[in-house]
Amino acid sequence: HKQVFGRSLASHIKTDKRVQDTQLIFFDYETIVETDELSMMKPYSCAYWKAGIDDLGKIDKCEKSKTDITDLIKENSDCFIGWDCSKRFVDYLMQLPTTHKYILVGFNNSNFDNLLLADYLYRTQNTTDNDWGYRIDRPFYNGTSLMNFYINNTISTWDLAKHITGTSLKNCCKNFNVKS
Questions:
Q1: d(CA 164, CA 104)
Q2: Mean pLDDT, all residues of the chain
Q3: Contact of 69 with 77, CB cutoff 8 Å
Q4: What is the DSSP letter of 17?
Q5: What pTM was computed for the model?
Q6: How does DSSP classify residue 131?
Q7: What is the pLDDT of residues 105-141, one digit of tens each?
Q8: I want to staple 148 with a disulfide (CB 3.0 to 4.6 A). Which of 2, 49, 135, 140 is the partner?
């Protein structure tokens, strides 16, 4: 995480008392092409891993042990599979304690995952599907990229691809010596 986040996010969380209780939720959607959908992409899977700043430090300590890292990730992760994966992911987000701030972190999510999540939230926030009373607000666009938005003023988004060098995931993994 040190190489990926550098001083831009992890050190900010460590030093800014206002966000020390921030939790990072790394998330990713998988889709199929569906011509009946507005975006032509229909999500069938959404996976996440929730980590506090202490969890990121634990990864540094267990870098050499794949088992330890796997155990750490299993503690706070899940993968929702099915056409209702967005609903189940939002249900998960809404049951999180409101005593923390949360940042949804993805790779290139401002051009893909954020759009899928925001689309679901916009379509359901004023319907009976919204049992939680969630609101999406303060969307920040740069051209067609949805850089950030807030859910209930406690959840925001952050795109790794906008803050690290190497524009493709493959190049970033190569640059950071990540083995697949």
A1: 17
A2: 80
A3: no
A4: G
A5: 0.79
A6: T
A7: 998 888 899 999 999 999 898 877 777 888 889 999 9
A8: 140
> Beta partners for 50?
25
In sequence order, the 6+-apart residues with CB closer than 8 A to the CB of 55 are: 72, 76
What is d(CA 129, CA 132) in angstroms, rounded to the nearest whole number? Answer: 9
3 state DSSP class of 46: strand
Is the pLDDT at 99 greater than 50? The verdict is yes
Q: How many CB atoms lie within 10 A of CB 96?
A: 14
Tens of pLDDT, residue by residue over 158-173, are 888 787 755 666 766 6
What residues contact 27, with CB distance under 8 A and at least 6 apart? Answer: 46, 47, 48, 49, 89, 104, 105, 106, 109, 113
Return the exposure string of 15-32: e unless at least 16 CB atoms fall within 10 Å of the residue's CB, then b: eeeeeeebbbbbbbbebe
Residue 177 has pLDDT above 70, yes or no: no
State which H helix or E strand residue 15 sits in.
helix 10-15
Total residue length of the chain: 180
Print the SS3 string covering 54-120.
Answer: HHHHHHHHCCCCHHHHHHHHHHCEEEEECCCHHHHHHHHHHCCCCCCCEEEEECCHHHCHHHHHHHH
